[in-house]
Automatic annotation (TrEMBL):
Residues 50-76 form the Rho termination factor-like N-terminal domain. It comes from Aquimarina algicola. Residues 25-49 are annotated as: Disordered. It comes from the Bacteria. GO terms for biological process: DNA-templated transcription termination. InterPro entries: DUF7218, Rho-like_N, Rho_N_sf. This is Rho termination factor.
Length: 79
């Protein structure tokens, strides 16, 4: 389809085909390291609250400064 604002077109298409909204698929496909980790990222539970906060900031989760670790994990998983 050739959307110039999508950095990882293959990942975007795969996410849309899995049922993700176009907005969420675009946000994931446009992360700087999209498609590079291959399932090797550490689980959210093993990360510090500061690391989770930085990830939430990177992807633009609102109200992150008021969230505890459990809430950050939930927001990251459901964003």
């Amino acid at each position: 389809m050739g959307r110039s604002n999508i950095k990882n077109e293959d990942q975007y298409e795969a996410l849309v085909n899995k049922g993700y909204s176009k907005e969420k698929a675009a946000r994931i496909a446009n992360t700087p390291d999209s498609g590079k980790r291959g399932g090797k990222a550490s689980s959210y539970e093993t990360r510090t609250k500061k690391e989770l906060y930085q990830q939430a900031k990177k992807i633009g989760i609102p109200n992150r400064s008021k969230m505890n670790k459990k809430e950050l994990i939930s927001a990251l998983r459901n964003n």
